């Protein structure tokens, strides 16, 4: 039995389709149910940011999660494979009509990815006032809560429609197949088989 942590949303749906071709059975969560039990798998539907803790504590053996979440949380889990879908960029952005001045003392940066932002600016030896938010990050510079943002960009629509621009790309991210360290040893054969099946062509 393999316990799988799947993120809610598009990436989870895409991953479940791959499990469908692996198991050759129809896999569908019933209405609002969060657990899907089959003969060989238990699938759990989990909020993206919560996936690493389920893996680290071995509630799930394997899971699918964005590299942004892995980098932000730095938990002890094994990164098995870059799935090469769910591609996004983590960027620094600011209003189109002004230039983001990195030498400004206490430059204010709004983000939900506090650790990624902090470590990026620390590496550049820039002193930045990081303002932790939980969503609608693009709003912050429009209403002067912040000078700029560190956020995820996928299509670029949100940035564009809010008159922001990309100043720098911090990293490219995509979905990863991850595993609990212990499960990887005790269920190695099954997990390696799944890893092989998930390998992008
Ligand atoms: C994310 C991100 C951007 C948006 C980028 O937010 O924080 O706001 O998606 O996508 P785009 O480049 O395709 O427009 P999310 O949808 O998770 O909502 P949130 O504001 O509640 O975090």
TrEMBL record:
Q: Which family does it belong to?
A: Belongs to the ATP phosphoribosyltransferase family. Short subfamily.
* PANTHER family the record matches: ATP PHOSPHORIBOSYLTRANSFERASE, ATP PHOSPHORIBOSYLTRANSFERASE ATP-PRTASE
Q: What is known of its domains?
A: Lacks the C-terminal regulatory region which is replaced by HisZ.
- Function (record text): Catalyzes the condensation of ATP and 5-phosphoribose 1-diphosphate to form N'-(5'-phosphoribosyl)-ATP (PR-ATP). Has a crucial role in the pathway because the rate of histidine biosynthesis seems to be controlled primarily by regulation of HisG enzymatic activity.
Q: What is its EC number?
A: 2.4.2.17
Q: How does it assemble?
A: Heteromultimer composed of HisG and HisZ subunits.
Instruction: Check the record and name the InterPro entries matching this protein.
Output: ATP_PRibTrfase_cat, ATP_PRibTrfase_CS, ATP_PRibTrfase_HisG, ATP_PRibTrfase_HisG_short
User: Keywords of this protein's UniProt record, alphabetized?
Assistant: Amino-acid biosynthesis, ATP-binding, Cytoplasm, Glycosyltransferase, Histidine biosynthesis, Nucleotide-binding, Transferase
Which coarse location class describes where this protein primarily resides?
cytoplasm
Q: HAMAP family recorded for this chain?
A: HisG_Short (MF_01018)
Sorted alphabetically, which SUPFAM superfamilies does this protein's record hold? Periplasmic binding protein-like II
Q: Which reaction does it catalyse?
A: 1-(5-phospho-beta-D-ribosyl)-ATP + diphosphate = 5-phospho-alpha-D-ribose 1-diphosphate + ATP
- Give the molecular function GO annotations: ATP phosphoribosyltransferase activity
Keyword Oxidoreductase tagged: no
This protein is called what? ATP phosphoribosyltransferase
Tell me the compartments it is located in.
Answer: Cytoplasm
Pinpoint the ATP phosphoribosyltransferase catalytic domain residues. Answer: 47-196
| First-tier enzyme category under EC | transferase
Q: In which pathway does it act?
A: Amino-acid biosynthesis; L-histidine biosynthesis; L-histidine from 5-phospho-alpha-D-ribose 1-diphosphate: step 1/9
């Amino acid at each position: 039995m393999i316990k799988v942590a799947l993120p809610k949303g598009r990436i989870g749906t895409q991953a479940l389709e791959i499990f469908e071709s692996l198991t050759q059975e129809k896999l569908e969560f019933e209405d609002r149910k969060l657990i899907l039990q089959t003969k060989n798998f238990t699938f759990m539907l989990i909020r993206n940011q919560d996936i690493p803790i389920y893996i680290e504590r071995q509630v799930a053996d394997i899971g699918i999660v964005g590299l942004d979440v892995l980098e932000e949380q730095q938990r002890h889990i094994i990164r098995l494979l870059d799935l090469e879908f769910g591609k996004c960029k983590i960027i620094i952005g600011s209003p189109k009509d002004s230039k983001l001045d990195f030498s400004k003392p206490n430059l204010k940066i709004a983000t939900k990815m506090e650790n990624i932002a902090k470590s990026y600016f620390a590496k550049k030896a820039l002193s930045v006032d990081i303002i932790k938010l939980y969503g609608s990050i693009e709003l912050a510079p429009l209403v002067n809560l912040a000078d700029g943002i560190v956020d995820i960009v996928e299509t670029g629509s949100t940035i564009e429609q809010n008159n922001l621009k990309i100043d720098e790309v911090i990293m490219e991210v995509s979905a990863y197949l991850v595993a609990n360290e212990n499960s990887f040893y005790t269920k190695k054969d099954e997990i390696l088989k799944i890893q092989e099946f998930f390998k992008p062509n």
